[in-house]
What we know:
Number of domains: 3
Strand order of the largest sheet: 14-15-16-17-18-19-20-21
Helix content: under 10%
Shape: globular
Strand content: over 45%
Number of strands: 30
Largest sheet: 8 strands, antiparallel, barrel
Radius of gyration: 27 Å
Structural class: mainly beta
Distance between the termini: 95 Å
Amino acid sequence: MKRSLLYLYISIGVLSFLLIIFLAAGLWKPIFYPKTDDNVRTKIVTPRETNLYSIDDQSGQMIWEGNLDTKIPMEDGEIVIAVLNRESEEHFAEEQYVVYRNRFTAGSPVFLSFLSYEEKTKGYKRMWNLPCAATNYETITLSSHDLIGDRSNCIIVSGMNANNEHTMTIFRRTPGEPVSVPYKKIAELQIEGSIIIQEVTRSAAYQQGITSGQSYNIAAYGHDSSSANILDQIETIYSFNQRSELYEQTNVSRIPGSQIEQRRIRELLSGAPGVFENFINNLWYYVSPQGTIDEGRYLYFDPPKKEIIFFGDDSQQVFIWQTSMNTRLGLHIRSQNISISTLLRFIDIELESLDSIRIRVNEDVRLRITSNTTWDGTYRRAGAAKIKEIEPQMRPTINAAYDSSWGRIQFNNSSEYSISSGGKIKKGRYVFYKVDNNDLLELRSEEGEESRMVYKIESGAGILILSRVRVGTNGIQDLLEPPVTLTPVN
């Protein structure tokens, strides 16, 4: 009897010890609380085997800092391009969508893969793979949106193919089907022009979860092959058919382009390297729907510096021009915010006339898959004579010297700075810019440690007071470090 009690006490002690280790190591979390992510967001990543998005002397700030992690390892030769995490419809785990390409098959379509958590095995499993129309992985965006209005979010894969056509592939989960069944492909478009999703305002009842909402249409714009005018377009509208559960063509209309000299248009749209880039190299004002020019909103394209400046609502945003591809009607540009590396903008530029262009901006990170109402529209060339009249107060670069607790800092118009202190010189790159009407300074040191520092600026009488901050998708966060005062050198 005593021996039995002794064994019982020893067993209880061993089990208690193992339980303490189990809890301390956090091994219980994957069982009761599978990993979740509050933000459903797209992450576009640089493929591992290349540095495709590095831009010469500014490569230090151009590398995409996305998260490449997938729930389970991919197969040999599969290169991850985009990852989308979201909560499962059962609300007990996170599910993952992965766009990838095959390293060994050049020019093949990209694929969408679905990874789902299995309660039975307490782990993730790859459920299926489906091909998409896009082949150029530099242009891929992945997003999730309720297109139908029934709260069953569709998965949208957009990009370009080998013919420089815009593509959009849309997948929808069939109601009632298990996750092991592949999503149904409800739309797949390929067109030489642009493709947008026409978002409409849905009722308050939909917002409150009481009723379904109106489905969104898809608009595709392409060249009118029956017209001699290169700028004439065809607008094709696709609407969701509840019976077939597919997007089907419902309307076709012609959009007449400007009647201008066709030889010059053919030169601009020839696809020759640098031709269209040189054409848009300048300042462009926004033109309102009423036809008036808004000098308070403009874009500045600077191909030599690989830079695009967006100015509106007294706020300036600087984007690095990463890559561009000629399209049938103009140019497709991939750009990255100079400070918020997770903010990408895909810009479609179409020639409207010899002094006007049409812009459509697709902003990644916030899953805005429709036209961006802030920047979309027609822009008219400002002309070099008017550039100096509307220069923003916060210039990206300056030519000035300041004394500070760091030492003497010299800013050059080449976007380079140097700090001299105690006989030592530190160098790097810098930029002044605005976020939410706050003046900011970013320093990119040539040294490896703390290579990127952002400061909020308060100015007066020529003196700059710098407070260290962190800039992210949630705004500006003060790091509560002692401020640094820059006094101009006379």
